[in-house]
Specification:
Largest interface: A-B, 21 and 32 residues
Low-confidence stretches of chain B: 1-10
CATH superfamily of the largest domain in chain B: FAD/NAD(P)-binding domain
Bound molecules: flavin-adenine dinucleotide, FE2/S2 (inorganic) cluster
Low-confidence stretches of chain A: none
Mean pLDDT of chain B: 95
Helix content of chain A: 10-25%
Mean pLDDT of chain A: 94
Number of strands of chain A: 5
Number of domains of chain A: 1
Distance between the termini of chain A: 31 Å
Structural class of chain A: alpha+beta
Shape of chain A: globular
Number of strands of chain B: 26
Radius of gyration of chain A: 12 Å
Oligomer: heterodimer
Number of domains of chain B: 3
Strand order of the largest sheet of chain A: 2-1-5-3-4
Structural class of chain B: alpha/beta
Order of helices and strands of chain A: EEHEHHEE
């Protein structure tokens, strides 16, 4: 199972293992990683699952769809490596993925 | 905090640090989130989560979408893995119904007679789907649509060629119709109003969805009055008041819900279209809170008008508010209401409350299947229905939340990006 490291804004790390096919958001929520609210449960309706993908991993996570990009336009503190974690599906390629969490989701 | 007008003497709210035992009745989205958020907020006392359904709290929205299509397992609907309740020291009681609230003694009685004491009680009992008030409504093949069990009962019949009649053209009815068409069923939607979505959106947006479903092969009987469900053991059709008859292998009723207020009523809490709650989600008893579909509360962005919302946003927000109040944390910033609906490849995203609008402005055109309808009351933006337009949705949501607006003649100008418009709004 792919391993993901979530780094909270305060630096605290959480390492989580989750099955291929789950999203980076689901893996966080199911393991109670704080800092990902995911109010809509992955319906791309809330933009409260914002993460920064470690630049090294960007080629493997691929790019945000135009739908997701339009949502990110209105999130706080958006960077070039911002993604909605409910839109990143885990693959075996993403084993070792590192994402950072923003200061707040609202 | 206690105020003089809150009733008899014993109804003085205990203060935050006196709260050692919290009971939550209803283990749906609102109840499940409350338990979790209380722990996240650092509450160390006892939490008991009482739920009538046999499963851990789960999300209902996918039931009429990806789950019904067979694309999601139950496992993935759960808010949290079932094992997490024990790990977080939350006493989760599945398949248990709360039957009585003793306000004076601050106890909840559950089926079987056991009584559980509380310092603070959260009602998160949700809503019940309305039953068809028709002869034959209890025949096999006639379904309500609220729970995972309902969806599971329907799935074996969701196969190509079967004749489905959906009664009621609200969001759930139309989502079910969309899934059925995608799976190859023959679908007829019967609606008593003259248009679909009559209570929840404008005639223009309703017309768009009517056209879309029609193009996808759904038949509509608008202004149709179902009079009885026909069949011997199993449904064979729906008889209409005008004498017409529609053949059916399967009937799904989506004619709205009623808030589940039985317990609240019996113990004398104020009820008015749901359990009446204030901005802190406190009911007329200061030690009892009510959240989610079962409660009505003041709408901060709409002159504190009292409304009862049926949405994930409302359920989650109630949980955040109550967890904040019960742990003495800084108050949660109330969001503008939001909702979504997925039908075919259309994503409808809604922010705000459109009731009372006096004009609507469109950005983009319906023919492109990508547009936003902005609702105004005077010069104030009060709501948006955005179809495949997430930027317009989030932008408008932000405006409503911060009490800003963009004049309707400017918001329609597609040469200006939504982000720019929102930045310049006042
Ligand atoms: C098919 C469907 C699709 C939906 N789609 C969307 C959508 O796309 N977007 C959106 O925002 N919202 C959607 N909703 C609405 C959303 O799911 C609800 O608003 C939300 O679930 C409300 O949460 P709740 O906890 O208040 O109520 P519920 O989820 O109904 O939970 C209440 C629970 O309390 C239990 N209960 C009641 N009385 C007792 C008792 N006495 N003792 C013990 N347990 C009790 C009930 O059995 C139930 O499990 C949809 C709803 C349905 C049914
Ligand atoms: S969980 Fe809501 S947008 Fe990702």
């Amino acid at each position: 199972m792919p391993k993901i490291t979530y780094i909270e804004h305060n630096g605290k790390e959480h390492v989580v293992e989750a099955p291929v096919g789950q999203t980076v958001m689901e893996a966080a929520v199911k393991h109670a990683v704080p800092g990902i609210d995911a109010d809509c449960g992955g319906a791309c309706a809330c933009a409260t699952c914002h993460v920064y993908v470690d630049p090294e991993w960007l080629p493997k996570t691929g790019e945000a769809s135009s739908m997701e990009q339009s949502m990110l336009d209105f999130a706080n503190d958006v960077e070039d490596n911002s993604r909605l974690s409910c839109q990143i599906k885990l693959t075996s390629e993403l084993d070792g993925l590192v994402v950072r969490l923003p200061k707040s989701q609202h | 905090m206690p105020t003089a007008d809150r009733g008899p003497k014993h109804e003085v709210a205990v203060t935050t640090n006196e709260i050692k035992r919290i009971i939550i009745i209803g283990a749906g989205q609102a109840g499940g989130e409350t338990a979790q958020r209380l722990r996240q907020a650092g509450f160390k006392g006892d939490i008991t989560l009482i739920g009538e359904e046999p499963v851990a709290p789960y999300q209902r929205p996918p039931l009429s979408k990806a789950y019904l299509l067979g694309k999601l397992t139950m496992e993935r609907l759960l808010l949290r893995p079932a094992s997490m309740y024990a790990e977080e020291n939350i006493a989760f009681l599945p398949s248990v119904k709360a039957v009585w609230i003793d306000r004076a003694g601050k106890k909840v009685r559950i089926e079987g007679g056991r009584e559980l004491p509380y310092d603070a009680l959260v009602l998160a009992t949700g809503a019940r789907p309305r039953r068809l008030p028709l002869v034959g409504a209890d025949l096999d093949g006639v379904h309500l649509f609220r729970t995972a069990a309902d969806a599971d009962a329907i799935r074996p019949d969701f196969v190509a060629g079967k004749k489905l009649i959906v009664i009621g053209a609200g969001y759930i009815g139309l989502e079910v119709a969309a899934v059925a068409r995608q799976l190859g069923l023959e679908v007829t939607v019967v609606e008593t109003a003259v248009r679909p979505l009559a209570r929840v959106t404008s005639p223009e947006v309703a017309g768009f969805f009517l056209d879309e479903h029609t193009r996808q092969g759904v038949r509509f009987v608008l202004g149709g009055q179902p009079a009885l469900i026909k069949g011997k053991d199993r449904v064979t059709g729906v008889g209409l008041a005008d004498g017409g008859e529609l053949p059916a292998d399967l009937v799904i009723a989506g004619i709205g819900v009623t808030p589940e207020t039985t317990l609240a009523q019996h113990c004398g809490l104020a009820i008015d279209n749901g359990v009446v709650a204030d901005a802190e989600c406190r009911t007329s008893d200061p030690n009892i809170f009510a959240i989610g579909d079962c409660a009505s509360r003041p709408m901060a962005h709409y002159e504190n008008r009292i409304a009862r919302l049926e949405s994930v946003h409302n359920a989650v927000e109630g949980a955040k508010i109550v967890a904040g109040v019960l742990t003495g944390q800084k108050p949660h910033t109330v969001e503008a209401p939001w909702f979504w609906s997925d039908q075919y490849d259309l994503k409808l995203q809604i922010a705000g409350l459109f009731q009372g609008y006096d004009h609507v402005a469109f950005r983009g055109v319906m023919a492109d299947r990508s547009f936003a309808a902005f609702y105004y009351k005077g010069d104030r933006l009060i709501a948006v229905d955005a179809v495949n337009r997430p930027g317009e949705y989030l932008g408008a949501k932000m405006l409503i939340q911060t009490g800003r607006s963009i004049p309707s003649n400017i918001i329609v100008d597609e040469s200006k990006p939504m982000k720019e418009l929102v930045a310049s709004a006042r």
